[in-house]
Amino acid sequence: QEKSCRLSAALLGEGSEISQEQLQELLKYAALGKCHKAAQPSWCRIYHQRHLAGVVVVVLHEMSQLHFYRFYLQFKHLRKVFQHRFTLTPSANFPVSLYGEGTNLKPQNTPQGLTSTSSECITESSDLQCDPIIQRYGEKKQGLTSYTLTLEEQKRNDYPIEGSPGCKGYISTECDQQRTDSSPLFGLDCEMCLTTKGNEVTRVSLVDARGRCLLNELVKPESTVVNYRTRFSGITKKMLLPVKTRLSDIQTRLKKMLPHDAVLVGHSLNSDLQALEMIHPSVIDTSLLFARSEGRRFKLKFLAKAVLGKEIQCEQKLGHDPTEDARAALELAQFFIEQGPTKVAELNLEMLLTAEKLAEVSQNKAVLQPQGCGFQEQLNEPPPLSKPCFLDCLKVTGQKPLLLGRQGLDSSGLCQRNLSTSNKQILQRALEDVPLSKFSIIQFSLGPEYIASHLHAGLHEKVRSKLTDMLTIYAGPFEENFCLKSVKKEFGRCGPIQSLTVVTETFQPYVCIQYEVLEAAQLAVESLNGAEVAGSCIKVQRPVTAAMLDCNVLIKELELDVENEGVIYVAGLKKSLTETDLQEEFSQLKDLETLFLPKDLQSGKHRNCCFLKFQKSQSAKAALEAINGWTMKGSELRSRNALAPGHLWRWIWQMNHSNGKQGKHIFYEKMEQLSDSEQDLRKKVKKLDHHIKKLYRSLQNNTLCVVLFPGVNSTHGLQSGLGLMGIKDDEGRSTC
């Protein structure tokens, strides 16, 4: 009789992030097993691995945990099938980080022996129309004003804008004269260190159109330095000790040096201007000028070598040279303006980048696999320069991984084994080819129009705003001189309170309470609405906003979420109780499997609530009835079904306690842009969920399926990813 595989993961607990290495650990063991010396992952366990029919990894390109919970109702299949979820550490280049830098998989169309200077890299004219540079700028040469960022583009890419709330106190360069195609260009670059305030400038360089250095100055940060980032900045504590120059001095000097029609050039110049706390209306950003598909960007080091033939940011040097970087960005802009889009597109930078990566890989292979050395002999060699990648390990065992994805999603060539132009085509290929492969990677995407960084920013704010509303309740009305302490005590029995304020704008006072967990807010609405508190019969309700109209539907679906099966929330615990005390108190409950006692992530102190996970749903239901009204150490307990699993609880806490520089108001305009296409986006997400459902149903029983929202490393910061996993059973669901 065929044994069924089983997956166990202790993920209810702390809800800590799973790293790329830990994920690779899981996939390696699932694909190779003990017979190939792969170890069980440290954070979960696969039982009967040798009976696995295959491994399928679905990667949702440029999507994060935000997407899953923003479109939670649309991801109907994902939330009902996969019983295990985990927060995933985001990665700038997800496929490369997952499968290793040293992959030797080539795109099928890549010429053998291609080098960065090969004439084979030049694009045929018939292909130019598809090049992102031609699509953006057209084929004809234009003056420099055609390549400066519009106000809208500056907003989308987080440039400091005059009058923007986030730029209060910023200094304007006052270069407000009309630009022309003969306006002077200036290259600008800064090095930053990390201080208690955030990123602060430690060095500034400015070069003129001839490349002459006009300014190269060390700057003393105003706040205490946390990290000098010497590896990248080249700045050390010793270098800054004698420095007297402050940011205000640099701002004054730049204002004097720049003519009124100056055009600043830089690579991701928004970061430099933000650190300088300066506003300049006319900029050329070379990271955007040399356009790529899907919102990706070329590095300055690569562009300098590929376009200018110059080596910059050499490893032998300590840190980057800002003058060198400013000059390189300036020359790149001048090259683009003088040669025009067609000449730049003909360089075929994507092919050059792929060739460069393949050259690096082949060098690594030479180190890893010297001629005449067997595998056992290599074990006695000194440590190699880079580890064999995960896909190479599969190849050693004779397994040929299937890679399906949309063309242009990954410049490294990892997902270009079989290329398709749409999610529908990818699905069709997957339905045909996945059954023939033991290990498959399927990469879907919402499309380039939905993965720009400003859309991520708007999405983040919408999710944060809705979570805040769901965690907030209003209670009242109360008498004029009501006892606030007794109100806090009564509502505190529902769970940990983050903030409590009295609303005085109304005829009679109300109280606004924001909880730390969703269950507490829901428990307050369910148990205290209509109750008598502080001498008044009160009404308890959540804020009434357009975004909250589907709150009850969302709460119901969260309760039914497969990951919350058999999990209940208990509040009203005394903070003096330890985990051991609670284990003892709850030991009489039948089929209790796990107890999770949340902690304040800053202080490390226990909260006055806990989560209990039971082996059977019926046992959880019985425990719920038994616990309500239960008195423990003189404190009356309240309980309900869980709404937020461990990884989500931690994420909610982090979102609520994030004190980002940009407040709610700064996203207003960006959110309007997002809402225009939100209906279309919801349809795409729903269709994507349907594609995954169709693919999942086609899988053999005992197939490990992992769905990854890899996270986003954008100009607005890191956005955590999300993983869902399970082993398909006879009923089409993932097993525990």
TrEMBL record:
Keywords assigned by UniProt, alphabetized: Exonuclease, Hydrolase, Nuclease, RNA-binding
GO molecular function: exonuclease activity; RNA binding
Domain RRM: 471-545, 566-644
CDD domains assigned: REX1_like (cd06145), RRM1_NEFsp (cd12273)
GO cellular component: nucleus
Protein name (record): REXO5 exonuclease
Source organism per UniProt: Lanius ludovicianus (Loggerhead shrike)
Gene behind this protein: Rexo5
